Amino acid sequence: MSSLLSKSFEALKIATPQQTGVSTRRRPFKLIRPERQPHVQYYGYGVSRDWLLQFAEQHCPEALPDRNAKNYETTARTRAYEFIVEWSGIYTLDTKDCFNPKGGSVPPEWIALYDGVYDDQLDDDEIMSIPIDTVHVLAVCSDQDDDFGWRPTQEKMDFMTKVIGHTPQWWVSCGFAD
After folding, report:
1. If you placed Cys at 52, which of 40, 62, 77, 176 could pair as Cys (CB 3.0 to 4.6 Å)?
2. Do 84 and 138 contact (CB within 8 A), yes or no?
3. What is the SS3 assignment for 44?
4. SS3 content of the chain, % helix, strand, coil (to 5)
5. CA 149 to chain CA mean position, Å
6. Half-sphere CA count of 63, side-chain side, radius 13 A
7. Distance, CA of 69 to CA of 77 (rounded, Å)
8. Which residues contact 63 (CB under 8 A, 6 or more apart)?
């Protein structure tokens, strides 16, 4: 029996991915990084908190507390996020609050306000009266070196786009390296 086993091992050929040309790691989707800014930029899907709530009620109602529970909406949004992570297989998916300017570029005064530039010049009421549009983002990656390489595959991005109902885009974070 040992000679049969020896012959089996001799016949067994193990090839590395480099030898076969087949990658063991799926390639991340292609994406061009935007120009660097002082604030981190996230690539992902802008969704409203109401959208997350409705998603949870539609796809995982059994995981939600009673609708009258004090923490219902927070729990529902968390369950929606967890469900999307599991369903998509994008385990690096994160949630971020980002600027949502009309017309594309973030006004410099918004960034200055978030960076505390006006703290000594304006009182709290004046600061609070400045309208700043933000959006909740399901972020698949950022422009940071340590995060950009962990992009999901194109197949996972296509699935996410179908689930969310619109394409992803770059968003400027409301914080530096939040």
Report:
1. 77
2. yes
3. strand
4. 40, 15, 45
5. 13
6. 17
7. 14
8. 56, 79, 83
Task: Identify whether the C-beta of residue 50 lies closer than 8 Å to the C-beta of residue 76.
Answer: no
**What six digits make up the tokens of 171?**
């968003």
Q: What dihedral angle (degrees, nearest 10) is formed by the CA atoms of 76, 79, 80, 85?
A: 170
Tokens 């200055």, located at residue:
112
- pLDDT of 118 reads 62
Q: How far apart are CA 137 and CA 115, in angstroms?
A: 20
**Which residues does the chain have with pLDDT short of 70?**
1-26, 103-108, 110-111, 114-120, 122, 127, 175-178
- Positive or negative, the CA dihedral 135, 66, 71, 64 is negative
134: which strand partners? 99
**Residue pointed to by tokens 């949870």:** 56
Q: What is the CA radius of gyration of the chain?
A: 23
Tokens describing residue 73: 């909406």
pTM: 0.75
**Range list of H helices, 115-172:** 124-128, 145-148, 154-164
Report CA dihedral (25, 143, 45, 106) to the nearest 10 degrees: -170
- The answer to whether 163 and 129 are in contact (CB under 8 A) is no
Q: Kindly report the number of other CB atoms within 10 A of residue 150's CB atom.
A: 13
